[in-house]
Amino acid sequence: MAMKIRLARGGSKKRPHYSIVASDSRMPRDGRFLEKLGTYDPMLAKDDEKRVVMDLEKIKAWLGKGAQPTDRVARFLESAGVLPKAVRSNPKSAIPGKAMAERAKKKAAAAAAHAEAAAE
Predict the structure, then answer these.
(1) For residue range 74-110, what is the model confidence (pLDDT) as tens digits?
(2) What is the CA radius of gyration of the chain?
(3) Is CATH 3.10.20.80 the classification given to domain 3-80?
(4) What is the domain partition of the chain in residue ranges?
(5) Is 44 in contact with 19 (CB distance < 8 Å)?
(6) pLDDT above 90 (res 119)
(7) What is d(CA 55, CA 58) in angstroms, rounded to the nearest whole number?
(8) Which three-class secondary structure state does DSSP give residue 7?
């Protein structure tokens, strides 16, 4: 059985509230889970201590049993010091899209024309 430590969404529309749960990876996101390990409330301020509440002993026990955290939960665990910081790289995020590249090209051409006009 492939175990995951992941988020299960609760709360009403546009007011999310998540539970950090240990679940079989084949179960639905908000479906059956084995144990609740904490909560995550994204509506709270980032510096609020109640934004992410985790039972670290239970999480360490599940990690010891082979459960894999999802990306978001892994980030929470890294900030809590349970997991080592992972190096992430997204080289495509720095490449502008088609529209932005076109605007940059037009802006460079306009700047070059303005520089030529000022030089004469």
Answers:
(1) 999 999 988 898 888 777 777 888 898 899 999 999 9
(2) 23
(3) no
(4) 3-80
(5) no
(6) no
(7) 6
(8) strand
